[in-house]
Amino acid sequence: MLNLHTTCTGANLSPVFFVQKSIPETHCPKLLSLPFMKLRHYTIPVFIPEEACPNQCVFCNQHRIAGAECAPSVEEVIVKVNALLLTIPEGSEVEIGFFGGNFTGIPVGEQKAYLESVQQYIQSGRVQGIRLSTRPDYINKEILDFLKRYKVTSIELGAQSLDDEVLKLAGRGHTAAQVQEAAKMIKENGFKLGLQMMIGLPGDTAEKSLFTAKEIIRLGADCTRIYPTLVIKSTELEHLYHEGKYQPLSLEEAISRVADLVPLFIEADVKILRIGLHPSEGLLDRSSLVAGPFEVAFGEMVFSEIWKRIFSTMIFQNGKRNLLTLTIASGMRNPAIGYKALNKTMLLESFRKVVFAESDELKGFEFHADTV
C-alpha cells in the first residue's frame, strides 16, 4: 500500500482557497453555489452600466454583458436589496456592490443618493459593507474620503492588464502606472482592494497575463476577478474580429491560461471572487455573443483542469492498481472528480476503483492518497 499526504502538489498550490458567493443579477432568489465554496458571504449586486465611462473599451458593451439597459433608480435599488435580503440566511456576511461602468465618475449627487439609500442596512447591521467598482484614473484622496464617509469598505479597479501595450490596444484610456498609484492610495486609506484582470485581450499573451497576475499580487490586492475576453456584439472588438485582426482564445486555451494563474493567487491568499463573466441572458442564448470562450461552468472547468494536473502524476503505464482512495478537503469533491467526471475517468485508466472522500481536517488542495 502506498500512502501519500500532500499539502502542496506538483502545481505548487497553497492549501487555502476562498471564493465569494454572489447573487446572480437576473436570478435573484438563486444563490451561486459552486461545490468548493465554503464562505457564507453574499454580495447584493447593483449594476450601473457604462455610467460615466470616459471612453469605450474595444471589448465593452455593458448593456449586452450585464443585461441591463439603464441605471436603476434609488427606489429600485431599495426594492431589490429588500427582496434579496429575504433570501439570505441571518448571520451571513452581506455587502452591497455597485458594479459596472465607473461609479466614482458619475455625478457626486448621484453617488451620494445611491450610497445614502443603503445606509439604513449598514446601520441596522443587516449589511456589513459596501463594495464598488471603478476606473483607476477616477481615484484620488478627495474621492476616497467621500467614500469612507458612506461606509464603503471595498473598491475594485478594472485594471484588466498591467501591460501598457495591452491597455492601449484595449482602449482603456489609462496606464499601468495609474493602476499602481490608485491601488496604493486605496490600500493606504484603509479600503480592501480588488483588481480585476482579463486574459486574451488584443496584444495579450500568456506571459503578459502571468505578469499582470504577479503585479496584482505585488500591489497587495485582497481579491481579484479573472475574465476571459469575449467578442460581444456592437463592440469595436467585433469589427476587429470580422476583419481578421483579432482572434479570441479557444475555450481550451482560456481554461489552461487561467489554471496557470489561479495557483499564484491562492498561494498569495488573494481571494478569487469570480472566474468568467456572469451569464446574462444575452450570453446564455448567444444573442449578444459573437465569439470567444464563454461557458457557464467556466470556473468549474478551470478547477477541474487544476486537479487534472495534480492527479496526472498518479497515472501508471504498466497495469492497473486495484484501489485508489483520495481524501480531499470538504467541499472539493466535485472539482476533484472533474467537470463531467473527467478526472475520475482519467484515474480509472490506472486504478480499477477510485473513491473520493472528504475531510474537514484538510483545506484547499490538500489531499491524502491511499493505493492498493
Write the layout of secondary structure elements.
Layout: E1 2-6, E2 41-47, H1 62-66, H2 74-85, E3 93-99, H3 108-117, H4 119-124, E4 129-134, H5 141-149, E5 152-160, H6 164-169, H7 176-188, E6 192-199, H8 206-218, E7 223-228, E8 231-232, H9 236-242, H10 251-267, E9 271-275, H11 281-284, E10 289-291, H12 298-311, E11 321-329, H13 333-337, H14 342-347, E12 351-359, E13 367-371
Parallel strand pairs: 2-3, 3-4, 4-5, 5-6, 6-7, 7-9, 11-12
Antiparallel strand pairs: 1-13, 8-10, 11-13
In percent, how helical is the residue content? 25-40%
Question: In angstroms, what separates the terminal alpha carbons?
Answer: 5 Å
Q: Return the average pLDDT rounded to an integer.
A: 86
What's the CATH superfamily of the largest domain, by name?
Answer: Aldolase class I
Name the CATH class of the largest domain. Answer: Alpha Beta
Q: What is the tally of helical segments? A: 14
Strand order of the largest sheet: 2-3-4-5-6-7-9
CATH fold-level topology of the largest domain: TIM Barrel
Number of domains: 2
Structural Rg: 21 Å
Order of helices and strands: EEHHEHHEHEHHEHEEHHEHEHEHHEE
Structural class: alpha/beta
Strand content: 15-25%
Contiguous runs where pLDDT drops below 50 for at least 5 residues:
1-39
Second-tier CATH architecture of the largest domain: Alpha-Beta Barrel
Largest sheet, in brief, is: 7 strands, parallel
Categorize the overall geometry: globular
How many beta strands in the DSSP annotation? 13
